Amino acid sequence: MFYNRKKKKNTKVKPKIGKKTVHSDFEYKTYNYLIDVMPNHKVEYETVKLPYTVNHIYTPDFILTLPDGRQLIIETKGNGHQFDAAVRQKMIAVRDQHPELDIRLCFYTDGKIGPKRKDGSFRKQSDWAKDNNFQYCIKEIPLEWLN
Length: 147
Description:
By secondary structure, this protein is an alpha/beta fold. The chain is built from three helices and eight strands, in the order E-E-H-E-E-H-E-E-E-H-E.
């Protein structure tokens, strides 16, 4: 007979190096190894953040040239699955590396994205667009965009 029991969450407390909680036991073991092998050397854990850029090519869905010569880039996205974390990161990277472009998003629906929140709700595509300063619409491109 099967019982509908919930699995217990992993209650193991992860070790810390200084004030930082390590990501894995392997990192903690490596830290201790370095301390043991090189006692007269300074060993730091995650003290530096290094920016990096990944080179990709972005192909916009639509480019609209308005009568005044301005160009709008319209990116269309379907439901939440088509607007995954990689696509969201790409859109931010393109916007940040090309601030001269006017990129706008047109969603088929205001789909759910990301994991369920503690309160049981989901983040929506429109929430992401607002939070990241993208103009957006759902299903129909507003006529105001074309003026």
